[in-house]
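Structure (tokenized):
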């Protein structure tokens, strides 16, 4: 029941020989207007931070602005209760765009970024590990920390998968939320201590919401805008935040080259590949997938490309196709309208076959 509710609450689940099968899941998440849980979790985390020797905050691998923004927000929140707070990340993902330069200019946050080895050296029996924007151990920045730390907090907004981090002592998992940044902003807002964000910290959290909602278009509710309004009080430069993630001319040309060679599969799903190997394949594919939803009569889009290590797959829909279910068949996950996956191969043809097979299975399951 916990897994099903963590997937949006609109599904039936069947467990056979240790494996889960899910049915349904075509409706959008229902936003909770009651904020009691946010207040309770804020108190629980702050109480745990007070008695911890140090705190390490960590996001997912191939970190994006929502994950790093959430990390920075949690550092600010936790610093009110524990002076030894660090971020386990090199924050060098291509998905961060120009934000990487902004982060490097900030002396405080630059100093508390830890490599894997540095983070492991900080771990002791009283360390608190706070994981944001991910709930699967294998997808975290440094999975070794999950094994080594006893006290773990998980804060995430993605629909729950069966291999979630079960040993967490505090779980703040709300699938209605637009982003992890929205959840972290609420924790800050309802903190026992008055927390004043710097403009950089507020912009980091705002950037997380901005990117995950595609400029406040997808997965936005009343609480999303309330969180954004709270952040605006701290002097956000909205134009600067948008500039962090603008593509240059070369990237735009790459994005439209991907779209140019797309195909319409099963009459409603646009599928396209990034033919050129690129370290920022995930970013280009994500932007191409977003743009393809503007094509008339397209209910969903899937783009994929090789980043030098594996095939990155980006899945988007307007709500009529459950991209989370398709992504799960590829080993990934996400939301009804926005999901992602990685395929361990460098063969684009093989990846295309797996993607189409996953789509076929999904359509067969829903009777289309």
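Design, position by position:
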């Amino acid at each position: 029941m916990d897994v099903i509710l963590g997937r949006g609450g609109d599904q039936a689940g069947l467990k056979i020989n240790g494996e889960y099968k899910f049915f349904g899941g075509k409706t959008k998440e229902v936003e909770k207007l009651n904020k009691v849980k946010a207040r309770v979790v804020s108190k629980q985390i702050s109480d745990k931070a007070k008695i911890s020797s140090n705190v390490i905050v960590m996001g997912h691998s191939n970190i994006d602005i929502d994950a790093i923004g959430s990390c920075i927000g949690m550092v600010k929140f936790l610093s009110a209760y524990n002076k030894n707070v660090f971020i386990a990340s090199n924050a060098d993902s291509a998905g961060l765009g120009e934000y990487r330069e902004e982060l490097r200019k900030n002396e405080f946050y630059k100093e508390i970024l830890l490599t894997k080895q540095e983070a492991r050296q900080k771990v002791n029996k009283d360390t608190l590990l706070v994981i944001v924007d991910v709930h699967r151990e294998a997808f975290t920045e440094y999975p070794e920390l999950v094994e080594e730390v006893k006290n773990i907090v998980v804060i995430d907004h993605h629909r729950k998968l069966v291999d979630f981090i079960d040993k967490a002592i505090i779980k703040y998992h709300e699938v209605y939320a637009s982003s992890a940044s929205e959840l972290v902003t609420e924790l800050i807002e309802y903190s026992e201590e008055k927390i004043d964000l710097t403009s950089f910290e507020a912009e980091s959290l705002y950037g997380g919401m901005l990117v995950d909602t595609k400029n406040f278009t997808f997965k936005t509710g009343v609480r999303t805008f309330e969180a954004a309004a709270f952040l605006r009080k701290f002097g956000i430069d909205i134009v600067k935040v948008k500039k962090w993630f603008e593509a240059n001319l070369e990237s735009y040309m790459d994005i439209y080259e991907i779209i140019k060679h797309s195909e319409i599969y099963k009459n409603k799903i646009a599928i396209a590949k990034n033919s050129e190997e690129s370290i920022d394949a995930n970013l280009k594919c994500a932007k191409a997938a977003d743009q393809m939803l503007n094509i008339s009569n397209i209910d969903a889009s899937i783009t994929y490309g090789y980043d030098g290590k594996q095939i990155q797959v980006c899945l988007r829909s307007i709500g009529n196709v459950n991209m989370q279910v398709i992504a799960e068949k590829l080993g990934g996950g996400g939301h009804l309208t926005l999901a992602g996956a990685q395929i361990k191969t460098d063969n684009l043809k093989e990846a295309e076959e797996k993607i189409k097979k996953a789509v076929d299975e999904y359509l067969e399951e829903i009777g289309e």
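Reviewer-requested clarification: The chain has a mean pLDDT of 88. The first strand starts at residue 11 and ends at 16.
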